[in-house]
């Protein structure tokens, strides 16, 4: 398959995640990143230009990767050989922690560790620039931008559940003096590593990668829906903010906020909206075929500490996975000088903090590959393809796939949250029903095991 056809196959089969590495690596404008009808960035290819293999090879969802670099396992062996531990679900790593930055926690979505680390990297001279997501124009809301000072890094804090692409920001890399750090979710980090494999000049520019543990890339529809729930129409909201903490409540009790046309901020508690993650609402199809839960290819992986006692603290706490000596040294130094409050987190506790994602992304992967509408020849090589599910879990995974797809179709046809909620009611009811039944079943099995073990 030539480069043009491969990229088109990825796009047409809803496997393009919009990272934009193909466009960034292309020396012309033959590949443009544009938002499609369902609110995702995808690659648009000019047929008059022959896309070469060097560009195809950076696609994280290339169904036919070149040579021995097939999965995250082989890529990690190239870049993370300082990590002395290796777990099939966590990847290569040095240590796992939970904690926060005293200074940056109040202005961050979680523990402020990403901001702290990036500032330390710049202070040490390890990097001179950071590419991360910042507020863009009112139409784009958010976009990847270059920060070249500590003040600019600080202004880029907080999580943004909004589609972005690296294409434009990475095209400036060769013009920047010094090394860069990049912040991204798993598929973006994989694309960057692939570009490092195939482009020595780009490889020399990358000094550090921070991976954000991701529950799935959301469509622009997600922000539109939440804004509509606050009472602001989709064509009038600006400044969407996805993680407004309630420091007097729990970590999960956060709000969404946006600004209306009269410059008034409108907010809504996410618990009033309902489950937006386990249901797969507004999620990209490609995310259902991603088996990298912990951003395995980053120097430092960060996520929310969804386990006790951290989850009861509304100020936010991060889980951390260090995968390079530099990442480990920054965290250890921050602990020693009192700037970071960090607990050692045993491996099994870290796994528990992301258990829901492991259950969906790993345990259900083989079944989704089997019954999903995505053609088998469009799916890259995967590592967790020998799992089996109970009949009840098979129903749940089918319902999740249908809910994900229907949410995009319904919102595209009428962007009003009340209409959407009504039309999605049946999907969500049955998904909730069978999910609850599965919880009861697991609880009964656990009790039986305890009785039989006595």
Q: How many structural domains are formed by the residues?
A: 2
Q: What is the helix content?
A: 25-40%
Strand line-up of the largest beta sheet: 7-6-8-9-13-14-5-15
* DSSP E strands, number: 15
Strand content is 15-25%
Q: Give the overall pLDDT as a whole number.
A: 94
The dominant shape is globular
- From the helix content, strand content and strand pairing, which structural class follows? alpha+beta
Are there runs of 5+ residues with pLDDT below 50, and where?
A: none
Output the radius of gyration: 21 Å
The major pleated sheet works out as: 8 strands, mixed
Topology record:
Elements: H1 3-12, H2 21-25, E1 31-35, E2 41-45, H3 53-56, H4 72-79, E3 85-87, E4 91-93, E5 95-101, H5 113-124, E6 129-135, E7 142-147, H6 150-154, H7 167-170, E8 180-184, H8 186-198, H9 200-205, E9 206-212, H10 220-230, E10 238-244, E11 255-259, E12 265-269, H11 270-273, E13 300-304, E14 318-322, H12 325-336, E15 340-344, H13 347-353, H14 355-363, H15 365-371, H16 391-413, H17 417-423, H18 425-453
Parallel strand pairs: 6-8, 8-9, 9-13
Antiparallel strand pairs: 1-2, 3-4, 5-14, 5-15, 6-7, 10-11, 11-12, 13-14
